[in-house]
Amino acid sequence: xxxxxxxxxxxxxxxxxxxxxxxxxxxxxxxxxxxxxxxxxxxxxxxxxxxxxxxxxxxxxxxxxxxxxxxxxxxxxxxxxxxxxxxxxxxxxxxxxxxxxxxxxxxxxxxxxxxxxxxxxxxxxxxxxxxxxxxxxxxxxxxxxxxxxxxxxxxxxxxxxxxxxxxxxxxxxxxxxxxxxxxxxxxxxxxxxxxxxxxxxxxxxxxxxxxxxxxxxxxxxxxxxxxxxxxxxxxxxxxxxxxxxxxxxxxxxxxxxxxxxxxxxxxxxxxxxxxxxxxxxxxxxxxxxxxxxxxxxxxxxxxxxxxxxxxxxxxxxxxxxxxxxxxxxxxxxxxxxxxxxxxxxxxxxxxxxxxxxxxxxxxxxxxx
Length: 368
Ligand SMILES: Nc1ncnc2c1ncn2[C@@H]1O[C@H](COP(=O)(O)OP(=O)(O)O)[C@@H](O)[C@H]1O
Ligand SMILES: N[C@@H](CCC(=O)OP(=O)(O)O)C(=O)O
What we know:
Layout: E1 3-9, H1 23-36, E2 41-47, H2 50-54, H3 67-90, E3 96-101, H4 103-107, H5 109-124, E4 128-133, H6 147-157, E5 162-166, E6 188-189, H7 194-199, H8 211-224, E7 229-233, H9 239-244, E8 249-253, H10 262-270, E9 275-279, H11 281-288, E10 299-303, E11 311-315, E12 321-327, H12 331-337, H13 342-348, E13 358-365
Parallel strand pairs: 1-2, 1-5, 2-4, 3-4, 5-7, 6-8, 9-11
Antiparallel strand pairs: 7-8, 9-10, 11-12, 12-13
Helix pairs in contact: 1-3, 6-8
């Protein structure tokens, strides 16, 4: 059985701060990718860099911030990026394919199935898939925004054995090392929790997006798919292979869970919540630690115009996101029975799909 590795590389590792591609960096990276691939290792690449590669050529003085300017830059830059990858990979006899995805592709099961089938076929033909967000057609509210999240979803989709996120810093530090030189590297992360998010800052360069925060988000998604993640640097010969041998210059995020079922992965990381429920402390305990379903008695508030069968987010009284689930009531129906014991709910409602507001089989916990 071949192992599958998803490698994600950020804009800062491929482009220069004033815009445009760094050809040398791509040449070197193509060499490393070629060395990583072997009879027993398949590689998929998630590459950023389209906006950073394209903005200067069309006259913007710096990485644009407005959506239409980023779209235009990406349209030019993505072509440049692929052209360069294809030329450099061809030197190693590797054919590369371009796959552009949007968040809505992951929300739609049949499109997700199609993407997965195409990737499988490319891999079986020995082609190196190069994936990026389809920036030109993505609107802000529906964007991944950062390719870190996209790489974790791709890793889960194709059941990768490892996700390697390459960036311009050699791992996660106790604080952003650009701001605090005394920060030290965290070699291994066993659990992703609030404390970890507290030390992670935003992007470190004018071309990066998301910083360490989005890399931790990615590690969280992948680890729920049972996939370990490395975040770090690989800019010296042999670095990339060493990351697979546990000797990389960066941070390893361990995974303890076996892969979540597809349905729960979709619920947690790809679906779009239509509304929100606020629950009390007893319901929080039942959902997070008790492995139980959510009943009307524990619900304090319902926001949004959701219908039975929609996905809703569940928050506690402090506004912390606890998880997501498929709701068995529509919003108006639920507002009528908030906080009531089950016997009372049964008396009030003529008809309800199920008594549980969210059944435990249709719930995923997302609390850090
Ligand atoms: N705790 C931290 N440890 C390491 N880097 C951090 C931390 N907090 C913020 N960063 C910043 O994250 C940056 C990497 O993310 P980003 O700029 O989005 O790069 P990329 O383009 O590779 O995705 C680093 O350059 C660093 O300045
Ligand atoms: N899709 C965008 C990249 C967004 C992104 O995540 O950037 P980065 O933080 O450099 O990985 C592009 O190609 O410019």
